[in-house]
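Example for tutorial group B:
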């Protein structure tokens, strides 16, 4: 985006669905990978931070929590900045913030400074990249948007599989400070991805037509809202927001506790950690596959119900997985959880785009992420309290499964019973203005008019009198006599 031009969003420009759209998709893939995988990859350095600053594991766990809170909680701020300055400059500034936070963290002397640098600054930078990337993906794809969302969402498991081993290598060779410094340099790639998000421009018009049309557009164009709260008037958006907030309470709990579950059953650390690799590998293929299925002609109009099915699938998987008693059961659980988790990841933003449309999506995504941020902060800690009280992982997985299943019921039944179907197009065309209705009736009246027309004698006499005054006396003949 050059100069002072602002990416105002949709201006009647049709989504390309090809060409530069695939370049934008590659940028979204990288941004999604960094945004979702980075909070988990940082956990590799927690043991070194505990030794360095003499703190507990719960203290270092706040780093990932603050990162996620910033990623979700700053949604409205990102919406305001995107509507004011456009996607490209916001993403490039966000890349600088993400990199700066990790570079400053490498010089930290206390855990509080890590919270402020890695947690707040880097978290804000990732948020300023993640949300605009979804907005640009929505603008560049229409017919192929479900597939694009699935491919973009696949960046999360791919980067998680890459960043976690890379973090261990960096920690072994350069220590946590050198690792943070190198990761900060890698995050500068977000600036390059942001540079790829060029705004869509309307087709150029002839010079003669350009000046008057532009003046008319400037006069008639309403002032753009920085944050559009009218999305709350949409029942579909309200149902989606409530369902998504309930879903997030339990969605992230199993990946957090499955490794500890395996250790509790008596298995080695490496064998337990391998469960996450299985989950991530399945997730990589589940997301694009679900995107292809969601793009089918007979599935896409019912994408909301496919999303509800994915949540039910995920919830039932948690409930069945809570009964695992050995490593084989946990492997089977991770396979099915990876499939359902990938389906949810591929569909969650595609469904929101379909509900609110391109114009209101920048504001809608910010408000939804804010609501989900509250649930993200409550979900895993509440699961930890259940574990402390019961000392059994079965109840943790059961509660998570019930929460995700409840969200699916809210979304499915809410859309089925509360969302009215739109009237058919022919019914809309019946309504017309009084003048148009009279014109429409005229052909019918002409058809009903009989071929033989009866003449009123009074009208004929009046006609003859007027002709007499103008042209003199009328000769009497059989034609004029009545």
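The residue assignment follows.
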């Amino acid at each position: 985006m050059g100069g002072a031009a602002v990416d105002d969003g949709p201006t009647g420009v049709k989504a390309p669905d090809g060409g530069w759209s695939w370049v934008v998709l590659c940028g979204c893939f990288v941004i999604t990978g960094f945004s979702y995988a980075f909070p988990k990859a940082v956990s590799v350095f927690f043991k070194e931070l505990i030794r360095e600053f003499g703190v507990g594991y719960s203290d270092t766990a706040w780093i990932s929590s603050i990162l996620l809170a910033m990623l979700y909680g700053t949604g409205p701020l990102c919406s305001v900045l995107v509507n004011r300055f456009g996607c490209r400059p916001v993403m490039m500034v966000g890349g600088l913030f993400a990199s700066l936070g990790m570079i400053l963290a490498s010089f930290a002397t206390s855990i509080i400074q890590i919270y402020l640098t890695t947690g707040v600054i880097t978290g804000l930078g990732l948020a300023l990249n993640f949300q605009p990337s979804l907005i640009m993906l929505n603008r560049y794809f229409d017919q192929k948007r479900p597939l694009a969302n699935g491919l973009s969402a696949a960046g999360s498991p791919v980067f998680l599989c890459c960043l976690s081993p890379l973090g261990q290598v960096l920690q072994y060779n350069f220590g946590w400070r050198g690792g943070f410094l190198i990761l900060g340099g890698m995050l500068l790639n977000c600036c390059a991805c942001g540079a790829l998000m060029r705004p869509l421009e309307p087709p150029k018009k002839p010079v003669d037509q350009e000046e008057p049309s532009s003046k008319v557009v400037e006069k008639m164009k309403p002032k753009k809202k920085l944050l559009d709260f009218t999305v709350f008037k949409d029942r579909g958006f309200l149902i989606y927001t409530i369902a998504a907030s309930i879903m997030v309470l339990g969605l992230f709990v199993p990946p957090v506790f499955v490794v500890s579950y395996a250790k509790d059953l008596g298995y080695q650390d490496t064998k337990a950690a391998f469960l996450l690799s299985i989950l991530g590998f399945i997730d990589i293929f589940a997301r694009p596959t679900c995107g292809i299925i969601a793009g089918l002609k007979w599935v896409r109009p019912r994408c909301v119900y496919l999303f509800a099915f994915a949540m039910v699938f995920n919830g039932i998987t948690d409930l069945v997985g809570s009964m695992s008693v050995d490593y084989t059961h946990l492997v089977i659980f991770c396979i099915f959880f990876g499939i359902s988790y990938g389906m949810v990841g591929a569909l969650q933003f595609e469904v929101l785009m379909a509900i609110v449309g391109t114009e209101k999506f920048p504001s809608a995504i910010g408000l939804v992420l804010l609501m989900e941020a509250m649930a993200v902060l409550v979900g895993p800690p509440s699961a930890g309290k259940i574990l402390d009280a019961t000392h059994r992982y079965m109840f943790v997985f059961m509660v998570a499964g019930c929460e995700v299943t409840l969200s699916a019921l809210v979304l499915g039944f809410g859309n089925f019973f509360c969302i009215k179907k739109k009237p058919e197009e022919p019914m809309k065309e019946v309504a017309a203005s009084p003048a148009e209705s009279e014109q429409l009736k005229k052909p019918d009246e002409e058809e009903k008019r009989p071929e033989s027309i009866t003449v009123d004698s009074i009208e004929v006499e009046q006609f003859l009198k007027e002709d007499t005054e103008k042209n003199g006396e009328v000769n009497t003949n059989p034609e004029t006599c009545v």
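The chain has a mean pLDDT of 77. Compare this with the pattern of hydrophobic and polar residues in the output above.
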